[in-house]
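Subject: for your reference before the review

Hello V.,

The reviewers asked for a structural picture of the protein, and I figured it would be easier to keep everything in one thread rather than splitting it across files. Below is the amino acid sequence we used in the manuscript, unchanged from the supplementary table.
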Amino acid sequence: MKTFLTTAILTVLLVGCADTWPVISKSNTGNLELNVYDPEGEYLNAELYLDGIFIGNLTGYKPIIYTKRGELVVRVEATGFKPYEKTITVLGEPNHQVLNISLEKE
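And here is what came back from the structure prediction:
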């Protein structure tokens, strides 16, 4: 009886706290490593757009982004090179996905 009562109390406490948990869990996000190269294989700094929204500049020091799980359009632009665009599916944690992009000169 004591075990049942303890379990019942813990259940009530945990269910009562459910609305304070994070809105986005790790299972709804994923990480994506983006490496952008020129035709000779040198790393390029480039602008990153996801679903048409500018996210930031990619550099060789921080190529990993964290984003929502699911389908999204990746667009990469660098001065003097043709833009790259591809629709991909981010699988979510614990998967680590890598997208290596070789840009063509204009």
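For the response letter, the relevant points are probably these. Residues 24-102 form a domain with the Immunoglobulin-like fold (CATH 2.60.40.10). Residues 23 and 106 are 43 Å apart (CA to CA).

Happy to draft the paragraph if you're swamped.

O.
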